[in-house]
Fold each of these.
Amino acid sequence: MDFHRFVQHARAHAKSRSRAAGQRLAAGQQPTTMFITCADSRIVTAQITGAEPGSLFELRTAGNVIPPYSLHAPSSEMATIEFAVLQLGVSEIVVCGHSHCGAVGALHGGGIDHLPAMRGWLRPKAPRKASDPAMRAEGQEHVRAQVQILLEYPFVAQRVAEGTLRVHGWFYDIETGEVSAGAEHAFLPL
């Protein structure tokens, strides 16, 4: 889809929804779920989840990376998670990785030397050969690592301990469209 089609769609957007829907959305947001996923253009959260406007609070980052919590080095990701949990009061957080992820490939030795900001953000590990070109196992391992980092945020840990917040690790297979959820030792179909 080229940019011209995006512009045409944006021009027609206001006519494609009811006035009542616009008024409902303007009254404020009350999402129950935060969805943290990759910025990859092939991940369309509303298509995957069936979410309507206002029901998902989204955070998209390269490789769905969640930085460690540190008030000495705040980031937009930390601020967005804080807002979702403490201000909006979401009761669910989904961290969703995906197959064929360039960031996960970069974490495992993919060439990103020409992208210094990306290299600094991802902090690549020592290269290792992937067992699958789609890097499914590596992507799932990455989701587990990001969930663990998220659970170390003090306000997330507190809400989880209180039973008012649940954190989920999901994995979207771009090729098949299947979504699986992280269980104790494996990712299983939803």
Note: The radius of gyration is 18 Å.
Amino acid sequence: MSTLDPASPPTGELPFFVYGTLLPGEPNHDLFLRGRASGERAAVLPRALLYDGPGYPYAIDGHGRVHGTLLTAAPGVYEELLGLLDHLEEYLGPGHPRNLYERVVREIELPGEEQAGKGQPEEGTPEEGAPGAGTVRAWVYLAAAAVTRSLRTGGSVIDGGRWVTRRPPGGPRTP
């Protein structure tokens, strides 16, 4: 597990790694991110597993990879966006017993620009072991401790770590 020291809060405005209903094309993307994000790019959360939830996924620490998007807040709206995402993800503060998710800092892998046009997956779809453009620290919402325990004992892992593969083609979108 690659965890940065929670006792020393990050400095500056970190980007956000999203992997579920906040992804482009998913229902919460426009509701929460339109006009509040200035940049989005494909990214991967290493050493994590993705579990199916009640209309949204949960990521937990594990031996896998979760595919998602790295978001940068638009100028002047970082605190607003942080508050909105904390509310959406039911994050009340570090270790709070009513948290649905914990907001933590993780190293996120970025796909390499050199992949495009060389027989590699299209830019924005990094694959296992693919060369990357490096890593960046970002906020990630991982399932809180009680949720993680429940998922480990009876949850359904999403193979491949991609939330969008869970929605039936042409099927209704979950909230």
Note: Confidence is low (pLDDT under 50) at residues 1-9, 114-131, 171-175.
Amino acid sequence: MIKGEVGEEPGKEAGVGTRAVRRGPAVRWVSEEWDAPAPARLREQMSAELAPRYAPVEHRRVRAPRPAAEEIVVTWVAYADGVPVATASLRRLPDRHEVKRVFVHADHRGRGLARAALAAVESTALALGVDRLWLQTGALQPEARALYAREGWQEVRPYAPYDRNPFSVCFTKALTEPARTPPSR
């Protein structure tokens, strides 16, 4: 697992970009273990938030196996006033590296934290020599799909094991140019 701590937006200056960024408390990004309490709590919040969207189609969903802690290279967590407010992880599989569980607490959305979480994972991957990332999201998550498209991700056919779920939407992104400075470790 990669250890580290960075400032307000890892790999990118705060407020830089094409979208307006809402200001709030200063954010500190920290790398943590996948199963540490803060990222686990944020993932639980994400699941609770998404459950009502998928409830009408739950009987048709096929769930992929959950990531194992040993597959996770890094989990980035954003803290605002000491409270965990955002997270994203990098998962290493035998044939690819995936971005997992990008989530920002509802009270902190609109501040560029999802973009910063992606930047942190992408920077970590670049520092490890990874040249392409993959991710899976859901058809009923238009805001996630829009974020990935804005950040240069290309939608692709669902890949295994997500290809069995009719609500999976998958993306990939080539990391050929270090567009951001890697976070310090």
Note: The helical segments are 37-54, 113-127, 142-150.
